[in-house]
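Anyone up for a design puzzle?
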């Protein structure tokens, strides 16, 4: 049997090209997403500042919620500190030579022009305590800082600023820019290229003041006593810290403690792979199955003849399975290397928009490639079994007779499964009409994808009915060619559906995946614009504005009130069906003041006056999901992993524009790595000279270098930029998926077109000219595109409307016209090229020779 399989594949190479292309593309796609997932687990960048410390202790960047016997763990997105009293605990551990508590906080040099100075590679510097200098490979020149007002600079920062030991500089940090004397320079001598976070060293006491907290350190660097093994040291430190919320790291793992942005990027990559991984595998299985079914369908006469001459169903199964195994193995193995290259291209694109740092390296181990081969082979075998089962279900004589004509019907199992999927997707899409929670919106989005997949499975009857609707207009408009095109489409609905199905999938999938983020982004921008009643928004090109900025700004001439805002991510959890459910929310912290003069969150219950360290305000969407109202308590998990249960004092509508959770700024600053405000909202006094107020605010640059003064729409503009980055970040990984769907579309349409070579030859033998055949195919292509565009656009409309209702309160989703037209135009152009180019090639052959070609 194996010899027959190999011989068949050799003799019918052209017939297996379609399946090969589909499986090759599936391997590329799965390998790329496997690399993304593996990179989210790896280190990303080498350790540098902590390279001299064999063991580093950081805060645990996850939390766990328990409900009865069940629990759920979530990764935190923020850097997590370590209790300061644990430094002594680690120092007393056997084998520890020295334990150093590291304090990291924003700090940047200011040049003579008032501009912020960065280090090599345009890297932003960070302030830290001098005690941590021994944790990294630094060469020192000059003195160490011994008193307040003295600093030691990293060489690349000093070179950029043009300063040396003995010079005076200004440094902007968590307080207003202040003068310092440079008493020394350190030079990084380790590996990994230029130092990615250049340090500015302060005395330990001053670093503690600028860090702003006495109960915490950023990390603990552990230097081993002479002769101590790193593995044993890590075990001992871990045992000493057992029961604390800490994470003991060695080797490359130290990088995630040193570089919080890298740890965040790794989390984003894991979320990305988790969110799209299942969809990717589902799409590859559907496309591979559809392509294999089309290939076997084109060989139906050959398989029917084998049945007639005595081949048993088992032998047919083995033959198709063997052919599929050979093709899938070769295609999947060959697709691994291009898949790794596609992942590298995606890494570069994600770094451009800031999802991952520029120096973040992807991990290219063998596991993603092995997974791609295994999944490709399994998907192909499942599809081959289903196809072979349909082939052998018909009696031999009936099969030979049926092979001469197109069989319009579908198998009962496929129809039943397709209808069931569509009903399930429809039910999920309607959830936001009955439930006002994030579950409903997420369910509706998933329901849209399920409905698209269902239509793909039911494509033949959908195409047949759509063709009947288009028959009269096409016959009237295109005359005889229109009638011929309609007749061909009706007679070959199943074959045509194999090409239209992927087109519907491309448009429907793109619509669901792109227009939900655009709807959210559009609503967020509109809410931010409507909710800001302040006259000005002050931001900074530095890491933010110091906590004293709102009070200082409020004291300027012509300013009535000012309040600082800081944005973070946090989680909330509830008990549902005896299991914990965790939700991620964007939150804002507001400083005290006359908030009603600065922001309008459209409060529907309660008020923001009661906002304090143990209270919270929720958006209506969050309140609905968490089942909480004014006076109730909710369970929040803050950026440092701590849990609090504040009382709800207000419920508001504008959660997309301002965050679903609003907290006191003290709570945010105490439980996150943030030490500064993102922005300060400013309202001018009635009748004040607006130009003078702007001049006063612009003049803050001397005190707070990097200050930017924006108008009332400053927050909405920032929201728009954030939304744009988020949209691009969501869309970039989908490019790989869209690319694969595009390949599947072209592959299927080319296969169906080339299979009609004998049909084209027959038309020419009975008198049709090549131009008439081409015009007929153009008419058919137009019909194919119209059906695909209408169905592919119509199916996602309901879930998009209900998702918009759940997220924004409006049934009208935000669909950018140019983006929609780009999707439709790209799909239509691909379809036209995939049909008309093969048609042109087929028409080059002489009709007498082409009529005798094998299928």
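Challenge accepted. My sequence:
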């Amino acid at each position: 049997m194996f010899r027959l399989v190999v011989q068949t594949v050799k003799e019918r190479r052209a017939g297996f090209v379609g399946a090969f292309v589909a499986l090759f593309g599936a391997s590329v796609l799965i390998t790329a997403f496997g690399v993304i997932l593996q990179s989210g687990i790896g280190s990303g960048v080498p350790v540098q500042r902590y390279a001299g410390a064999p063991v580093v202790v950081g805060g645990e960047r996850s939390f766990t919620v328990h409900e009865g016997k069940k629990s759920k763990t979530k990764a935190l997105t923020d850097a997590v500190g370590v209790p300061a009293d644990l430094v002594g605990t680690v120092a007393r551990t056997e084998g520890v030579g020295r334990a150093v508590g590291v304090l990291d906080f924003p700090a940047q040099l200011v040049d003579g022009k008032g501009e912020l100075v960065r280090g090599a590679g345009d890297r932003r510097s960070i302030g830290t305590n001098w005690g941590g200098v021994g944790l990294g490979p630094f060469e020192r020149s000059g003195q160490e800082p011994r008193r307040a007002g003295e600093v030691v600079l990293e060489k690349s920062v000093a070179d950029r600023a043009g300063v040396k030991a003995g010079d005076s500089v200004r440094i902007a940090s968590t307080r207003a820019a202040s003068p310092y004397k440079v008493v020394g320079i350190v030079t990084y001598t380790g590996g990994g290229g230029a130092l990615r976070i250049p340090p500015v060293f302060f005395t330990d006491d001053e670093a503690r003041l600028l860090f702003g907290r006495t109960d915490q350190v950023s990390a603990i660097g552990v230097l081993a006593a002479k002769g101590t093994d790193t593995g044993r040291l890590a075990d001992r430190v871990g045992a000493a810290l057992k029961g604390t919320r800490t994470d003991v790291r060695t080797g490359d793992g130290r990088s995630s403690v040193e570089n919080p942005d890298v740890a965040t990027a790794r989390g984003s990559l894991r979320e990305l792979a988790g969110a799209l991984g299942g969809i990717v595998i589902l799409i590859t299985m559907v496309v591979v199955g559809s392509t294999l079914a089309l290939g076997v369908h084109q060989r139906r006469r050959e398989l029917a003849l084998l049945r007639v001459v005595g081949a048993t169903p088992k032998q047919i199964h083995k033959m198709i399975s063997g052919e599929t195994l050979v093709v899938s193995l070769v295609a999947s193995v060959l697709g691994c290397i291009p898949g790794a290259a596609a992942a590298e291209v995606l890494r570069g694109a994600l770094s451009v928009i800031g999802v991952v740092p520029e120096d973040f390296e992807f991990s290219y181990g063998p596991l993603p490639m092995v997974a791609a081969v295994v999944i490709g082979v399994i998907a192909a075998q499942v599809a081959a079994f289903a196809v072979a089962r349909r082939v052998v279900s018909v009696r031999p004589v009936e099969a030979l007779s049926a092979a001469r004509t197109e069989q319009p019907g579908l198998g009962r199992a496929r129809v039943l499964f397709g209808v069931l999927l569509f009903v399930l997707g429809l039910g999920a899409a309607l959830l936001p009409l009955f439930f006002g929670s994030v579950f409903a919106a997420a369910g509706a989005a998933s329901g849209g994808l399920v409905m698209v997949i269902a239509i793909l499975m039911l494509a033949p009857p959908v195409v047949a009915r759509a063709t009947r609707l288009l028959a009269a207009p096409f016959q009237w408009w295109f005359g005889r060619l229109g009638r011929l095109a309609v007749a061909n489409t009706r007679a070959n609905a199943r074959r045509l559906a194999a090409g239209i199905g992927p087109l519907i999938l491309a448009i429907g999938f793109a619509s669901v995946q792109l227009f939900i983020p655009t709807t959210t982004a559009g609503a967020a921008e509109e809410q931010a614009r409507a909710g800001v009643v302040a006259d000005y928004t002050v931001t900074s090109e530095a890491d933010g504005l110091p906590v004293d900025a709102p009070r200082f700004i409020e004291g300027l001439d012509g300013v009535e009130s000012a309040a600082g805002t800081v944005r973070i991510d946090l989680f909330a959890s509830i008990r549902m069906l005896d299991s914990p459910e965790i939700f991620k929310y964007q939150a804002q912290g507001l400083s005290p003041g006359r908030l009603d003069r600065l922001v309008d969150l459209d409060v529907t219950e309660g008020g923001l006056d009661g906002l304090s360290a143990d209270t919270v305000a929720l958006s209506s969407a969050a309140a609905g999901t968490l089942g909480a109202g004014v006076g109730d308590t909710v369970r929040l998990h803050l950026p440092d992993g701590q849990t609090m249960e504040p009382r709800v004092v207000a419920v508001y509508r504008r959660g997309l524009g301002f965050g679903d959770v609003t907290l006191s700024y003290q709570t945010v600053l105490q439980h996150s790595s943030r030490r500064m405000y993102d922005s300060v909202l400013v309202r001018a006094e009635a009748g004040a000279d607006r130009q003078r107020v702007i001049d006063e605010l612009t003049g803050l640059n001397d005190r707070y270098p990097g200050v930017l003064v924006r108008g009332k729409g400053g927050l909405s503009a920032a929201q728009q930029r954030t939304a744009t980055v988020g949209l691009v970040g969501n869309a970039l990984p989908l490019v790989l998926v869209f690319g694969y769907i595009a390949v599947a579309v072209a592959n299927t349409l080319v296969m169906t077109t080339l299979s009609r070579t004998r049909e084209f030859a027959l038309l020419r033998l009975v008198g049709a000219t090549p131009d008439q055949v081409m015009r007929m195919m153009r008419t058919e292509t137009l019909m194919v595109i119209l059906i695909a565009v209408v169905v592919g656009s119509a199916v996602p409309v309901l879930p998009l409307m209900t998702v918009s209702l759940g997220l924004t309160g409006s049934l009208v989703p935000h669909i950018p016209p140019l983006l929609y037209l780009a999707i439709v135009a790209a799909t239509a152009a691909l379809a036209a090229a995939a049909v008309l180019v093969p048609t042109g090639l087929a028409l080059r052959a002489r009709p007498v020779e082409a009529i005798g070609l094998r299928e």
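A detail worth pointing out: The chain has four domains: 1-45+260-401, 55-259, 406-522+720-855, 533-712.
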